[in-house]
Amino acid sequence: MTADTSRRLARSHGLICGDMAPGARNTICDVPGVRVGHVTQTQGNLRTGFTALVPHQGNVFRDKLPAALEVINGFGKSAGLMQVEELGTIETPILLTNTFAVGTGINALIRRAIAENPEIGRSTGTVNPVVMECNDGYLSDIQAMALTEADALAAIAVAGEDFEQGNVGAGTGMSAFGFKGGIGSASRVFEIGDKPHVLGTLVLANFGRPGDLTLPDGRKPHPADARQTEERGSVIIIMATDVPMSTRQLKRVAKRAGAGLGRLGAYYGNGSGDIAMAFSTAGRIQHYENVPILERKVLWEELIDVLFKAAAETTQEAVLNAMIAADPMKGYRGHKRPSLRDWLLPG
C-alpha cells in the first residue's frame, strides 16, 4: 500500500470503526505470512481483474490450513466452498474475480497445484481450488470473458505484504451502496494469554442499496444519480488470524462478518451473494501425516469474544476502505459510479 493510498482510507477521514487497535498496516497482511496480489484489466470496456490471497509462503496443498465459511446469503457462483465446509481446510491460494472468470481461476489454481505437486490426481487425491466472485457487469463487459489463467497466476506471483485497495484486481468494476466499490482491508491486534495476536480481513465489496450506507459517525451518504431500489450485489469477506483455532471456532468467527455488514446498513437482499471465510495460519495440517492420531492446540472458547469483536470491526472498516480508496469510474455503456471519498471531502 502506497502512502497516497493510506491517505485515502477511512481513518484519514476520521471514520473509526470500534475501539480496538489496528495492526501496523491495518490490512490482512498484518497476519504473518499472508500476502495479497492483483492483476487489473481496464482496457476498452473492461473493468475487471483477479485478486489473489496467498495464505502462507509454502506449499499450500501439502501444508493445509484450518478454515471455515459462513454463507450469509447464497446468491453466488463461487467454487470450492462445499469441500471447505466438509473438510475444514484450504489447500490453494484464494482467488477473487468476476462471476464469469470463476472457471478460469479454477483451472489456474489446479495447474499451479499440479506443477508443485505432480502426484495430484495420480497417486494422491485431487485438489480443491477456492475461487470466489462478485458480478462486475455494471461497469465492465462481463460477457467478454477476457481474464486468462495467466492473469490469475500473475496475481499470485506478485502477492506481497503491501497492496493497493479500491479499484484494483477483482474490485476494479465493483459497486457498493451506489458508490464505487472494490477491494478493502483492515486488521485488529489484541492479546491472548499475554501474547500478541492479530485478525485481518479482506473484502470484495459489491453490495448495498443506495441510501442505506451508514457511516460510523451516523451520516448516511447517498449518491445523487443512483436509481437502484433493491439490495443487489455481493460481498466476499476473507478473515485470517494467527490464533490457533478449530474449524468450528473459525466458523463462529466468520459469522460475525454479518455484524460488520449490519453496522454499514446492509440487510442481505434476495439477490445478494454474501460469503465469509475465516482461516488460521496456526496449526497447519500436513497432507502426508505420519502419525495416526493428531494433537492440536486450539483457543479456549471463553476467550473467543475478542475475535468476534475484531471480525465485526474489520469487516466494517474494510468495506469503507474499499469505497474510500476507490476512484470514481466510468465504464461499460457509459455507466458511472462516484467515489465515497469525493462525498466526504468538503466542497
From TrEMBL:
<dbReference type="InterPro" id="IPR016117">
    <property type="entry name" value="ArgJ-like_dom_sf"/>
</dbReference>
<keyword id="KW-0645">Protease</keyword>
<keyword id="KW-0378">Hydrolase</keyword>
<protein>
    <submittedName>
        <fullName>D-aminopeptidase</fullName>
    </submittedName>
</protein>
<dbReference type="GO" id="GO:0004177">
    <property type="term" value="F:aminopeptidase activity"/>
</dbReference>
<dbReference type="Pfam" id="PF03576">
    <property type="entry name" value="Peptidase_S58"/>
</dbReference>
<comment type="similarity">
    <text>Belongs to the peptidase S58 family.</text>
</comment>
<dbReference type="InterPro" id="IPR005321">
    <property type="entry name" value="Peptidase_S58_DmpA"/>
</dbReference>
<keyword id="KW-0031">Aminopeptidase</keyword>
